[in-house]
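User: Can you predict the 3D structure for this chain?
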Amino acid sequence: MILDEYLDQTFIHEDRLLIAIKEEIAEKGMPPISVPPITGATLFWLIKTASRRRVLEIGALGGYSGVWMARALPDDGQLTSLELRADYRDLAQANLARAGFKNRVTYLVGKAAESLRLLWERGAQFDFFFIDADKESYPLYLDYALKLAEPGAIIAADNTLQGGKVLNMSNEPAVQAIQAFNQQVANHPQLTSLLLPIGDGLTVAQYCP
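Assistant: Here is the predicted structure, written as C-alpha cells:
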C-alpha cells in the first residue's frame, strides 16, 4: 500500500457525488487529471480552517476539486473558476450545481492569463488560490496570484513534484517550469511556504506582505 492509498482509506470520505464526477469525466473522454482525494481533502481543510471566503481556481476540468473547495466555504463564500475550454466549464458548472452551489460559482472561459489580467483590471481580490492548469504557466500564475491576493491569502498549486522529476535536471518544459515555480515560491520574501508530498505534490504558501 502506498502512502496516498493509506491516507485515502484512513482519512478521506469520498461521497457518491465526487465519485460520480470522476466517472463522468472518464466517460466523456476527458483527461483523468482530477486531484486525488487526499489533495481535495487538503484543499477543503485549508479553506475551512483558515475561514477563507473568496477562492480563485485556475483550471476547473470537470468540477471535482471545485466541489471539494466550495463545500469548505461559508454560506457567503464564492468560488471563481478559470477554464480554457467551454465544454469542460459546462460539465464543471453542472456538477457544482448538483452539489448545491449553482449561485456561488462564477466561471471565466478562455486562456487563464487573459482571465487573470481581466480580474486584475477589475480590482478583484481573493483569499485563497488553487493553481492546477498548464504547468508551463505556473510562474506567471503565481505573479498574478500575488497581484490579486489579500494579505494573508493562501496559494496552493498541484503537481509540483512532477512524478519526482523535479528532483533532477530535466529538459521537459513542464518540469523546468515547476522547478522554477517552486524556487520562486520558496525564495519569495513575502511568502511562507512548504511542499506537501501528497498526490503529485501540493505546494502551499501564505502571502505575508
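The chain has one domain: 3-207. Residues 176 and 199 are 19 Å apart (CA to CA).
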